[in-house]
Amino acid sequence: MHAISRRNRMLLTLAVLALPVSGSVYAQQAAVDPNIVVTAATTTPGPEIKGVITARNGSKMKVTAAHGTSTIIAITDATKIKSASGLFSSGSKLDTSALLNGLPVTVKTLQSDAGLIASQVNFKNNDFKTAMMIRNGTSQRFEEQAAATEALRGRMADIDNYNIKGTTNVYFDSGQAVLSPDAKNSLCAAAAQAEATSNALLLVVGYTDSVGSEEYNQTLSEKRASRVINYLQQYCHWKPYRMLTPTGMAEADPLASNDTPEGKAQNRRVSVNILVSKSVEGL
After folding, report:
1. Are 280 and 156 in contact (CB under 8 A)?
2. What fold, for 148-277?
């Protein structure tokens, strides 16, 4: 009788479900296929995925990288979930409830016939605290900004409820959603300006020029906005709970005429708006 290794025993128990990836940040419910079973023979080491959890749905999570690519990864009972330090010891296996939307993670994966499976998920304790605060509706109180925290919990999409304190535009090449070095510097400068503004929130809006179909430009404008948000959060340290819901506006609200190359270049942009709710202005 051949001995079965611990690794093989683990792999023989893994089962995953196929989940289609949609353009929305919310994962859609997938049907369970009881016939899909992952075995040692059908599993190989997969890539390491780094990014932010942007959707959870049962045994699946969507991880979006800084460059905008999203990956659906299955979570199983064998997945190890660890925090780097702090309240949760790295020696303790955490529950999947720790995998919150907005949490930056590093995921070690296995590749199966049905897709990627998380073998281990790592994250930083400070990032977990931030994600927990988002989930709880920013229930944690900052004594010096109690009114602002309440405004965050009751945030509204209507721009008329806010005063605009500043706008920073970053620009893109035609058909692209790649941030230039100048754009990255401008984003962190905008975040610093917002940080110095009492009770400030950020609203990110993506735009395109007139080249391409309406559907293509809508998707491109949303991708550009997503790229900017990821950079603001991951590299400029802007807190996700101080961000209003982003949007893509495609060709709407051009800064210049789309009849010239110079005008189109000005319209291929993402606007980062610093807003303060009128209800807390002056508090």
Report:
1. no
2. 60s Ribosomal Protein L30; Chain: A; (3.30.1330)
